[in-house]
Amino acid sequence: MAESNTINVDEGVDLPSQSKISQSEEEYEKLFNSLNGVLFPGGGANLTSSGYAKAASVFYRLALKANDQGDFFPVWGTCLGFEELTYLTSGELILTATNTSNVSLPLDFMPDAKDSRLFKNVPEDVLKALATEPITVNSHHWSVSVKVPEFSDIRADL
């Protein structure tokens, strides 16, 4: 039997909840209070005026409040979700058009990445592989340039 290179992200965590984008703010708050983190998935939606944007804004605001009060509440954005987080963090549309479809690349870590919540417990050999080998899958139409001043605000929240 071949060894699996995948990890089930739901192992050891609560079952996921799904939020409908047409709920009231009170319904979002009730759902938020039953969660221990939020994932903003990919897809296609307007970052400023869609139901997705409204729901993300409520969960983002509540997550910031929880974290400010010492209640660690992780927020993850994948693809559209990350784009939404850039907008919610900066208050601006700061994305840059890019064409990195079906490209494997090494990561270009910022100097303080090893001390971040995301990477501080990652084994050194894994960090080295991520930084030197083309093992990350990239399929993007939009990116955040490190030259955009708001990038440091987004990076600081990792």
Automatic annotation (TrEMBL):
Residues annotated as catalytic: 79
EC number: 3.4.19.9
Segments for region (Disordered): 1-20
UniProt keyword Hydrolase present: yes
Places the protein is found: Secreted, Extracellular space
Hydrolase among keywords: yes
InterPro entries (alphabetical): Class_I_gatase-like, Pept_C26_g-glut_hydrolase, Peptidase_C26
Annotated GO MF terms: gamma-glutamyl-peptidase activity
Record GO cellular component, one term: vacuole
Keywords, sorted A to Z: Hydrolase, Secreted, Signal
UniProt cross-references to Pfam families, sorted A to Z: Peptidase_C26
Similarity-based family: Belongs to the peptidase C26 family.
Protein name per its UniProtKB record: folate gamma-glutamyl hydrolase
Natural source organism: Acipenser ruthenus (Sterlet sturgeon)
